[in-house]
Specification:
about 190 residues; mainly alpha; Rna Polymerase Sigma Factor, Chain: A; Arc Repressor Mutant, subunit A; 2 domains; 10 helices; about 75% helix; elongated
Length: about 190
């Protein structure tokens, strides 16, 4: 087995070589912390959740069957932990308003926005992401920034694949509306 393969280290841990788990922690700590921070929006809570995620993963490694990628399994643990913390805080997640914008319109706008100063656009995208509910931010992050497939996101979040697609689509529309309002001059100059 290739020593770089996650399954090699997982098997090592299952066979009693507990120090092999440190490789998995090192490899996935930024990913888990990033997801935790996106959802909880607090560095201390995110650090605590990341630690809890690895503790739970270590304690449950015997139940990992390998039917999905280890990163997906780990994301699922972190996601569930974040949802639990958010429920404890009694944070309400608001549904998105429907927007009347076709997919072709989105594509046209996206193509034209590439002409806008990339640095200004990156800052605006960050602000647009902040307007989304935490669960939608996670979906956008997983899909666009972490390059996770819809199938993997569905496993991580417990949502159906079609629900993941719909939520990502709606989140993109909401971000578009924010960008349109806040970059109105730049967007309409491009149009």
């Amino acid at each position: 087995m290739n020593p770089k393969d996650d399954h090699y280290y997982i098997d090592q841990v299952k066979n009693g070589k507990l120090s092999a788990f440190s490789y998995l922690v090192e490899k996935y700590r930024d990913m888990v912390y990033g997801l935790s921070l996106k959802m909880l929006k607090n560095t201390e809570d995110a650090e605590e959740l990341a630690q809890d995620t690895f503790v739970k993963a270590f304690q449950s490694i015997g139940t990992y069957r390998g039917s999905s990628k280890f990163s997906t399994w780990l994301y699922r643990i972190a996601y569930n932990g974040a949802i639990t913390q958010l429920r404890k805080r009694k944070v309400e997640l608001y549904s998105l308003d429907e927007q009347r914008l076709s997919d072709q319109d989105e594509l046209d706008i996206a193509n034209r926005l590439t002409e806008i100063d990339q640095e200004a656009l990156a800052g605006s995208l960050k602000k647009a992401m902040a307007t989304l509910p935490a669960d939608d931010q996670v979906l956008i992050t997983l899909f666009y920034y972490e390059d996770q497939r819809v199938e993997d996101i569905a496993q991580i979040t417990g949502l159906s694949e079609s629900n993941v697609k719909v939520k990502i689509h709606r989140a993109r529309k909401k971000m578009y509306s924010f960008l349109k309002e806040n970059l109105e001059e730049a967007v309409f100059n491009v149009l």
